[in-house]
Structure prediction request, 206 residues.
Amino acid sequence: MLTAGWQTLVLWDVATGQIVRTFHGHSSYIMDVRVSPDARTAVSAERDNVFIRWRLDTTNPVRVIPPNMQAVDQLVPQCQLHAVSLGADGNVAFCSYDNRDAVRHRKEEGRSVLALWNLETGEPLAVNPGRSPCCNAVHLDADRQVSLTGDALDGRIMLWDLSTGQVVRDMTADTNSEYKVNSISAVLLSADGRHILSSANQVVVW
Prediction:
């Protein structure tokens, strides 16, 4: 089991509950970490928009990946990484970036950017403006070429087509208002792609 927190990753032995090794290399809070299917490598992403690829049998980083932010900065200058979801193979990442002022003051006029990254090259595969000022949660299903976003201000949950950059469905707008919440903290697509799980002040299956 691999856990992440402030600048540090920890590999645990699940059977004994003991720490196997600790990984250092990040300079800010680690937003997400993904272990490869063969359990030999992992990729972690930090708030300062740096990705690190690791071999789990050593504590030294294999590669530090600072993505090319030019396309993102053109849409929203001085934005910050707010949420990230790594693909199952650790080679792609889906991220949301928000205007710092909008996040701090919860301004409706703020803007967000959604970006899909190739972590082999550090270059964007797609960069699109978000539909809300502050995207709080994201989920990537690279196999199905779809992603999910959850809004921090109005509780909207959107399903995106990665090939077109368009919203396939606005889940909150399609459902009864009793399920509308103020801030989505997490979104997840089921393994069969038929259901969405969202978390806020309540957990909802769509």
About this structure: Helices lie at 70-75, 100-105. The chain has two domains: 2-65, 70-205.
